[in-house]
Structures are given as structure tokens and as C-alpha cells.
Amino acid sequence: MSQTKIESPFLSLQEASEYLKLKPSTLYSYTHKRVIPFYKLRGRKIYFRKEDLDNFIMNDMNLVKSKKQITSDALTNIVSGK
Q1: Residue 2 forms part of a structural domain
Q2: Residue 2: what pLDDT?
């Protein structure tokens, strides 16, 4: 009999901390400060949606552009008159 693994869109605190490469205490602190979205099951265990974690990363991280990207953006701005 083969076992089917159910893929859940939710991660536990430990799984989310591994996913984000943060200490669980840091992630818990973020929930306490309401820095990151989370869900509570019956007011106890904390869970995170993977989609929310991805959005958190994309919104809270600063993109550092490569020289090629900077040059391309500059040329685009020159051509468009910005």
C-alpha cells in the first residue's frame, strides 16, 4: 500500500523558520509584532501560508540591481525622456 503525502499550503512555525532561514524565536517575534501574516488554530498553534511568506520576502527585501540592470534602466530612461 503506497502512502500519499498531502501537500498543505500551511507551514508550522518550525517549517516556516526553515523556509525563511530564520530562527524560530525571530519568526515568533515577527508574529508578536505583527510584522508577518500568520494564522492560529483555535488560538494555539501558529501557521503560515507559503504564499504569504513569499510575499513577505518580496516586499521586505531590497533588490540590489546588477550593473547590467542599472545600465539597461538608464538607457531606457534616456530613450523615454525620464
Answers
A1: no
A2: 57
Q: How far apart are CA 53 and CA 46, in angstroms?
A: 13
Averaged pLDDT for residues 43-68 = 85
- Helix ranges (H only) for 1-82 are 13-20, 24-32, 50-60, 67-80
What is the pTM assigned to this prediction? 0.65
Q: Is residue 4 part of a domain?
A: no
- The yes-or-no verdict on residue 64 having pLDDT over 80 is no
| Residue numbers of the domain that contains 57 | 10-80
Count up the domains in the chain and report the number. Answer: 1
Give the separation between CA 29 and CA 41, rounded to whole angstroms. 18
